[in-house]
Amino acid sequence: MDRLTLYFFAALLVSADGCALTRAPQMIANREAVRRSLPPDISLETIAQRPSRDVKITVEQELIRLGAHVDEDGKLRDAPGKEIRFFHESAPPGTPPIPRPLSPEELEKQRAWEQFQKDFTVIFITWNPEFGPKPCNAAPTPQLK
């Protein structure tokens, strides 16, 4: 085989399999420091998302994907340096509410949530880690005032 053919096959193999130099790391740097920086109700093994019955995405996998590390102040940050926060999703309502205009208070909450998502990298924690059935026509949760 001539050199050009050899280079062609080498390039083909690298592009088909992906270059090891460009892959994300498979472990968290300083795992114990990361573990200590997590909120008390979150562990590295907590299921963050469950897209299907066969797939579980843990907090650790999300942190690896984000390139998480602990800064000198003990805060958990992603690769670009944004602080990482966690949000526990709530179960969806059984019957979707009828669309209506948002009240001023709801608009303010929506704006605050949008600002929160700009200020922090948010890891969502699923409400359904066991991938059970979604609620169907569930009675509405009473609102405390």
Count of DSSP strands: 6
Which strands sit side by side, in order, in the main sheet? 1-2
H/I helix tally: 4
How large is the share of residues in beta strands? 15-25%
Q: Which features characterize this protein?
A:
145 residues; alpha+beta; two-stranded antiparallel ribbon; flat
Question: Could you characterize the architecture of this molecule?
Answer:
The chain is α+β, with helices and mostly antiparallel strands. It has a domain at 18-93 and 121-125. It has four helices and six strands, in the order H-H-E-E-H-E-E-E-H-E. It has helices spanning 3-17, 31-37, 59-66, 104-119, and strands at residues 47-52, 55-58, 69-70, 76-77, 84-88, 121-125. The strands form three sheets. It has a two-stranded antiparallel sheet. Strands 3-4 form a two-stranded antiparallel ribbon.
Strands, helices and their partners?
Blueprint: H1 3-17, H2 31-37, E1 47-52, E2 55-58, H3 59-66, E3 69-70, E4 76-77, E5 84-88, H4 104-119, E6 121-125
Parallel strand pairs: 5-6
Antiparallel strand pairs: 1-2, 3-4
Concise account of the structure shown:
With about 140 residues, this protein is an alpha+beta fold. Helices cover about 30% and strands about 15% of the residues. It has helices spanning about 5-15, 30-35, 60-65, 105-120, and strands spanning about 45-50, 55-60, 70, 75, 85-90, 120-125.
